[in-house]
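Dear Dr. L.,

I hope this message finds you well. Following up on our conversation about the binding site, I have prepared a predicted three-dimensional model of the protein together with iron/sulfur cluster. For your records, I am including the exact sequence and ligand specification that went into the calculation, followed by the structure tokens. Please feel free to forward this to your student if that is useful.
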Amino acid sequence: MAKLTEEHKKKLSDGRQQAKDINSHVKTCITAISKQRSPEKAVRTRLVEDRLKEMPSNTKKAYCTAVLGKSRVAGVKAFCQMCVGWEGYVENIRGCTGLDCPLYPYRPYK
Ligand code: SF4
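The resulting structure of the complex is given below.
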């Protein structure tokens, strides 16, 4: 078996740290939504948890920021990512053909 170089070890370590940061962000997000003063908070918490399970890790941060109402920019980004189904989202949003979509002028990655 090939030995890992220092560069590979650093990349692995950075990746693990990034995954921990995202998981921590997601937990904070779910906790915050479950504590909101809203009659729909239980249903909303479950829906957000289910949605988070569908998406790749690198899109979860923007989604959490958006569902917590902290950033309109994150809201547009997360919505566009969902719209294209997350797979290859940068290229797909950049090449969006939804010219009549109200978010078209605001979409990221132009
Ligand atoms: S701008 Fe394009 S990618 Fe974004 S929501 Fe509209 S149709 Fe979807």
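In brief: The radius of gyration is 17 Å.

With kind regards,
A. P.
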